[in-house]
Amino acid sequence: MSTPTNQQAYAKTKLLVEAIDRRDSPALERDFGISSAVADEIYESIDDYFDKGTKISIAPEEKAFDSRAQHRPFIDAYETDGKALGLECVLFANGAPGEAILHLEVSESNGQLAVYYKYIGS
To answer: How many domains does the structure of the chain reveal?
Structure first.
């Protein structure tokens, strides 16, 4: 197992957030192993932070890991003990940074990337 690059983690996270924004439970289960019960919890968290109809996304890749423009990067990446890349991602609402932060891990094994959803907090 090796630690994924920021670019690999960004691409996988973007797909995850797009599926969350579409409320696409089958894609969350098929592509990320997120059960329908956990997907429902994710949607509840999103509803707590954002108004109905808000477009949820993450920062553009060119700005995502850069902390020069603000106190911390929009996506804070750190290596975990298990060679996974931990991510704390500021969720954007209609293109602007919001309060909600998506916490997850991305790992690579046998050339395959896997995402482990942890929680959404602030």
So the answer is: 1
Tell me which residue range forms the domain holding 78: 6-121
Burial class (CB in 10 A: 0-12, 13-18, 19+), 84: buried
Name the residue among 38, 40, 31 with its Cα closest to residue 13: 31
CB 27 within 8 A of CB 34: no
Phi-psi region of 111 (alpha: psi -120 to 50; beta: other; left: phi over 0): left
Question: Distance (Å, rounded) from C-alpha 97 to C-alpha 94?
Answer: 8
User: What CATH number is given to the structural domain containing 23?
Assistant: 3.10.450
Does a structural domain hold residue 113? yes
pLDDT, tens digit, for every residue of 69-104?
A: 667 899 999 998 878 899 999 999 999 999 999 999
Q: List, for residues 1-12, the tens digit of each pLDDT value.
A: 678 889 999 999
User: How deeply is 12 buried, as exposed, middle or buried, from its count of CB atoms within 10 A (0-12, 13-18, 19+)?
Assistant: buried
pLDDT of 81: 81
